[in-house]
């Protein structure tokens, strides 16, 4: 069966990184394919007996981007195994990336009026409005604080996991770096005891045994894990009935290093038998670990 991945999202959010990862994984990749050619391209892929193709579509596709939701619905109705990955980032991060690369926004010429080019912020806002319907079609990944290695790993794990009814992601993050854009449910665990104030534990993370032993000794920490797990357990069937394919539960503490990481690891263990569970530590890129074949990642 042909497997199709659509990579879309805001310009500057990492689509090229994601597409190169898919190419390295054996996908036949096409960048900036006009929407009106999608049916023809996928038909050719079927005829050529290709097993995996990836297409990047964004605001550069003139005029017909609004047709993409209907095209995706039609392809799925015909039995095409299709995944949509939408990449986004904060406006300030996107502006910094454009400044570093000295590139023009792809909507600059289209939005120009009377010979005066629009501001970068205006282009980003217009692109968000243009692509807003697409963000509801698949899995949203906020790349604001991600390294290229993290993004590649997250996309890789996602395409492996997406064959099940629902992909449940537990994600730790640091409030001091902002709330992730790709959050469906968010829990604040800053009220729990903080290992940061112990000089021995400060350089460690919630994945390290000394920190785990420290936190597990507090009844409040165990109660927080139980309460979050109970909430997710109670409402997960409703999310699945809503034909949702992805649910991201974000756990935040001040630095995204100890408490949130520990609780995400515990929740991952609790729900390990519930289909596909992904664990992500947004502000701890060194916790990227190799993924054993056939298993969900323990930490990405």
Automatic annotation (TrEMBL):
The gene is rapZ. Keywords: ATP-binding, GTP-binding, Nucleotide-binding. The keyword GTP-binding applies. GO terms for molecular function: ATP binding; GTP binding. Residues 167-283 form the RapZ C-terminal domain. This is RNase adapter RapZ. InterPro entries: P-loop_NTPase, RapZ-like, RapZ-like_N, RapZ_C. Signal peptide: none annotated. It comes from Pigmentiphaga aceris.
